[in-house]
Amino acid sequence: xxDTTPRVxxxxxxxxxxxxxxxxxxxxxxxxxxxxxxxxxxxxxxLASAGIRTAVVSRVGDDGFGRFLTAxxxxxxxxxxxxxxxPVAPTGLYVKELSPxxxxxxxxxxxxxxxxxxxxxxxxxxxxxxxxxxxxxAAALVHTSGITPALxxxxxxxxxxxxAAPRPARLVSFDLNWRPALWRGREDEGRALLxxxxxxxxxxxxxxxxxEAVFGTSAPDDLRTLFPEPRYLVVxxxxxxxxxxxxxxxxxxxxxVPVVETIGAGDAFAAGFLAGxxxxxxxxGSLARAHRIATRAIASTRDHVD
Length: 306
What we know:
Layout: E1 8-11, E2 15-20, E3 32-37, H1 39-49, E4 54-61, H2 64-75, E5 79-86, E6 93-100, E7 106-113, H3 130-138, E8 141-145, H4 148-151, H5 153-164, E9 171-175, H6 187-200, E10 203-207, H7 208-215, H8 220-226, E11 232-237, E12 240-245, E13 248-253, H9 265-278, H10 283-297
Parallel strand pairs: 1-4, 1-8, 2-6, 4-5, 8-9, 9-10, 10-11
Antiparallel strand pairs: 2-3, 6-7, 11-12, 12-13
Helix pairs in contact: 1-9, 9-10
């Protein structure tokens, strides 16, 4: 029988996104489209679309939005057995406001309603259920981001437990995903924590703006000097990416395709690169796969690929 064990486990928050049906201020928008969101969940769906067996460890509320999110994971072929259902706390959500751009695309602005959510109660116990233990034991790679430790002290402890666990044959992937609003009033603490996580990961993704905000530089070669420990370091901007595999360096341009809206493109890009690494592609090949999958995320106002 074929092996159906997930090769990747993504730890992080799932959200329901309510996306405005038309561009304009929220006070004039009467219709919203519901979809799945959350950085690690977007990455999980994109990995599954690339043929990589993937699971999510997370928490949702015992409500219609939580059931919608787990149904979406099932529909996209992502293992959701380690998504806990909280009987009290609600599923988090955000509203995406769209503004027209001069080039015909739209700009998304996110308004979050996640305080006290089920996902904020992620903790080391979330990694200790029999299903989660089995998934993590078999995983070739675990993926998380800088959003998770900002949600709550218990979520931070869960991520720390995941990164600190012995991993003789398992890679840790970390997407910086700097969210200043989540660190308001404790920005220095956030920068120090995310810098430490980047030093300890095997694969690190960051955009140039996020790198500048957290690490004080956005130059790829300077970032490689700052972070020699990760085997892979990937630095992106709208024009393309620079990636390192040890001392090897590769650069690639973004594909010239129509853009509808860009939120979620970084998650899809990370998934494409990880899929390349897991299937043995070269550094250039992994970048090419990342760009191809990212183009699918910018083709709609949803955050994830279909």
